[in-house]
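Fig. S4 source data, part A: sequence.
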Amino acid sequence: MTQARANQSYVGSCQPVGARDEPRCGGPALLATNTHHWRQRPLDSRSPSNDETAEALRVLRERYRITIANTVAAFRRLSAQLAVIASAPEVVEALRRELHRVHGSAGSFGFPEASRLASELEEIAIRWVSDPSLDVDRRAAITAEFANALEACVLGEGGAAATSAVALHAPSPDVNRDGNPSGRPQRSESCPTCPDLIIVEDDTTFVEMLRYALESSGFTFLHYANGPDALTGLLALPVGSRAPLILLDIDLPGLDGFSLHERLRVERPGVYATVFLTARAGEAEQLRAYRAGAIDYVSKPVNLRILMAKVPSWLERSRRSA
């Protein structure tokens, strides 16, 4: 996580079309294109080799290790803020959201213990949100302890020294947390007018992993990082006879995933198929999603190989329904 991510984790913005640059640690720049031609490829042919997948996951895991120094620094800043005003609702909510991101992404990058610890503290933070007096004298210490545990889980012995040189630079005020001008959705390299998938997800480290998997398999996609921008874009997106698949997080800035899904069902019925992809694994959330017409529900952290094995069948089902 960059300093910008730490400072702006809770301010959602639709991610911009990136330049043709390599992704930066802490904030990937997804690829853009002016290509307007679309050629359908057989769905079952879009699969990278096992060696390619293994190597890409290794690289992504190492990038996550590098950026964790910024994530740890963010938790320590939150701990310092809680030490001043432990009951500040905006700080507690910021802590909950940051824990939610680590819960969803750490295990997906191969750090299951970090994901488990974040999930446990996220549940505690949820109770803090509803009860301002709970653990009020221990919140700062608990958060600081989690920051130390996260650092140990991901970096291991001697890992802190290896990443201590990672800069914590803040962006200029007119750019988003990825360092790019804000206001436009990210696109894959060969995204046609109507992509195969739309990712609605505010965790940029998790989006980087999905980006590799989708682009290496030949899928095209758009990415939105908050609910309001996704709603605006998806209400206006021309889809023709296709039914794009939405990979939808629930815990989004501005407009939650359930509300976004319902608005699209009402205002563009039958246009999109939805798979919820979220760190919320409760039975109530899953039942709500299926009753609202979702075609699947996947809990984070995810196994990337299994996730990508499901994408072709999800797309086939969505296009049959269209």
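Fig. S4 source data, part B ends here. DSSP finds eleven helices and six strands in the chain.
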